[in-house]
Design goal:
Number of strands: 6
CATH class: Alpha Beta
Bound molecules: zinc ion
Distance between the termini: 30 Å
CATH architecture: 3-Layer(aba) Sandwich
Strand order of the largest sheet: 2-1-3-4
Structural class: alpha/beta
Helix content: 25-40%
CATH superfamily: Creatininase
Strand content: 5-15%
Largest sheet: 4 strands, parallel
Number of helices: 8
Number of domains: 1
CATH topology: Rossmann fold
Amino acid sequence: MSYTLTIDEIGELDPDTVILPVGSVEQHGHHLPVSTDCIIAQAYADRIGEKLNAYVLPCLPISTCREYMGKRGSVWMNPDTFYLMMKDIVFSLKEQGFRKIIIVQGHGGIFVLAPLIRTLNAQLNPNVMICKLEPYQFFLPYVGSPSVPGCEASQILESNTIMHADKFETSILLYLHPEFVRSDRIVDFVPQYPREYLNYGSIFRVSPDGVWGEPSKSTAEKGEKLLKIGCELGMRYIKEVFRFMYEKGSLNGSSF
Ligand SMILES: [Zn+2]
């Protein structure tokens, strides 16, 4: 159920679940478009929305990506602005009777989303429940570790790292939009710094090409699998999170 429907059609379908993909307009090295996070977030949201009969919104294109400044084209807002904007959106959905809200986070660097969702769930449960899903989240435990027999998620990512403009994002773009990938411009780079150094300086201080990972290991076939497995595990996760929130009941007067 997408945003191409009319209000009459949405009213007739009467969804209780809404999905908001959140992306970012930010640099993705020499080989991927600045819209990469938006494309991936929307693809996840559309696929999950179809299975859940949910109302899928168009991707919010701009969030918090100050860590990618240094070359023109990335656009960000301050985390406090983003926090207030997201709060307004959640309340506008609540006022229309949506009970379950799923936020698909396409840009890993929106750290303010976690405390926002915690606060809103504490204030709005059990009437409204909000779940956050990151396309990356099911693969991170397997990065750089040997593959686990019987676990497909662990067998696709033989990379040492997935962080940015990496094998994960490049494979999915190769699958969804090969025409957007400048394959002849792919550069691998794994900075010699941990991720939190993005709090101390732009990515270009630690990676001259703006890449963090091994995009040269990408294929469209891997992208198709990453999207498929990510959606399957995402569906399981969403159901489990909503079940948990629905069943938790009252605790000393609190619904959180
Ligand atoms: Zn990205």
